[in-house]
Amino acid sequence: MSLNKGKLHPLDDGSQNLPNFAPIYEMAQTVDRFNGRLRAIFSKAEQKFTADQWHVLHMIAVNQGLSQNELKELVNKDRPTVSRMIDVLERRNLVERRRDETDRRRFKLMLTAEGQAIYNEMQPEVVAFVNRFLNPISAEDQSHFYRILSQINAGLGDD
Predict the structure, then answer these.
(1) What is the rounded CA–CA span in Å between residue 116 and residue 15?
(2) Percentage of the chain surpassing pLDDT 90?
(3) 70 with 82: CB under 8 angstroms?
(4) 157's torsion region: left (phi>0), alpha (psi -120 to 50) or beta?
(5) Rounded CA separation 89/109 (Å)
(6) Residue 49's CB: how many other CB atoms inside 10 A?
(7) Which of 22, 53, 71, 143 is an S-S bond match for 5, by CB 3.0 to 4.6 Å?
(8) Cα–Cα distance between 133 and 42 in angstroms, integer?
(9) What is the model's pLDDT at position 106?
(10) Which of helix, strand or coil describes residue 102?
């Protein structure tokens, strides 16, 4: 039996003028495989992480002092989800909220010494994985890929 990944439904004979779903399916499968490999990396660590928790930890590491609202925008999650992730990382003594000295209503997010140590330990393995993932793709194709993904993301609109 020959499989056609581009079909929407087994009865789709192409006469319905349907879009080609193959790239969407391929993208979803790639994201699932990518996240599965990340989960494997994070499950081996002394401190277990989800991919989302790592993303939050990474964004705080490279943007020390950002606000929870700024983090929410960077990780594209809603406020309650980000708040829960920060709470979890804070309970694990990886992240801390510090009151902003210039605006007492605002908290700055910082890695603790333990959070920074774990980030420094895990980051090389994550970078090596991402490099293995992207190395087969030329810099030009990576640029096109990013541009196309950005267009797809923009087309989805805000939640």
Answers:
(1) 57
(2) 54
(3) no
(4) left
(5) 11
(6) 23
(7) 22
(8) 16
(9) 85
(10) coil
Residue 27 tokens read as: 């993208």
14 band by pLDDT with thresholds 50, 70 and 90: low
Residue 106: closest CA among 135, 68, 146:
68
Does the structure show a pLDDT above 50 at 18? yes
pTM, 2 dp:
0.77
**Extended beta strands in the chain, E state:** 95-99, 107-111
What DSSP string describes the chain?
----TT-SSTT--STT-----HHHHHHHHHHHHHHHHHHHHHHHSSS---HHHHHHHHHHHHTTTB-HHHHHHHHT--HHHHHHHHHHHHHTTSEEEEE-SS-TT-EEEEE-HHHHHHHHHHHHHHHHHHHHHHTTS-HHHHHHHHHHHHHHHHHH---
As separate numbers, helices (DSSP H) first and strands (DSSP E) second, the chain gives 6, 2
Structure tokens at 134: 């992207």
- Supply the Cα-derived Rg of the chain in whole angstroms: 20
Cα 111 versus chain centre, distance: 18
User: Residue 66 in 3-state DSSP?
Assistant: strand
**Residue of 121, 95, 103, 112 whose CA lies nearest to 42:** 121
CA distance 89 to 95: 6
- At 4, list the tokens: 């056609």
